[in-house]
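To whoever picks this up:

The nightly regression suite flagged Transcriptional regulator, LacI family as changed. Nothing in the input moved, so I suspect the structure step. Input below, exactly as stored in the fixture:
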Amino acid sequence: MATIKMVADYAGVSTATVSRALSSPDLVTPETRKKVQKAIEHLGYAPNFNARSLRALRTTKIVMMVPDIANPFFSEVVQGAEEAAQLAGYSVLLGDTKDDAERENQYASMLLSNEVDGVIFLGHRLPAILSRMVSERGFRAPVVNACDFTADHGISGVRIDNEAAAFAATELLLAMGHHHLGVIAGPLDSPITQARLAGVRRCLGQQGLGEQVRVSHGSYTMEDGAEEASAFLQSPERPTALFCFSDELALGALSALRTVNLSCPGDVSIVGFDDVRFARFVAPPLTTVRQPMRRIGESAVNLLLSILAGRSETQEIVTLQHELVMRQSTGPAHQPG
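Regenerated output under the current build:
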């Protein structure tokens, strides 16, 4: 087990400096803080959090780590979190991680240095710097996972039933006669991508159409949606429908259709995922899976506050309800000729 002395020796500083870097980081130079953080991460050191909580006052601050602050889905999640936190007298600090593991560790280290009382992360990676705390305290660690949730971390979190949501969207397209589908999914290492793909394949399998789908992967951006849709549209057997795993991907796909003078839904139907604010304002308005974005943020904060108050008795997984929203971007499958 790593000790504060081992951290100090590795960083080449005194134990007092390590303690100061954790408790009063503003009194330590950025260079020294970086050395201490690197040592902590390398050695897997974690302070005695139970003892610290007895002697330290609350900061009334939470850090929320967002994979992409420009994504409108996350902005609504953050708004819900802000509202719940404000009601409880807490402030939310935002960390735009750009889905980068090193940036995630930098923001997560604020918990170790007593700059915040808890962490909410909206991506799927548990920051490595928190792994020891979570392994020791489990669901009692002041860490909550939301959106791209996996129960494997052993911490509490918030999600929707992504497999069921994707099943419902696929079922809709099959009912409209679409038996040649293209799926523009998210990153393959993402739990929500895996769950949604499972829903698509389960639905197709029940209809005996397991081979009638082609899958590409993007990064939930409009640019990737346009690029992946263009590849589908140029293929000899063009899909009659595209199921995009985010509304941003779907908007990119709509742009790709216009570029090659194809209509939606006349030539190709499109289904998105999230129901971000502008999904109903595009032309045509987007059929999509609605996620309760604000409630995700509210629920994540309330879970964290429950942990901080010592009320958590077990790992709690909150599964919120999704809704399939029918608009004008879907229609019957186009019949050639």
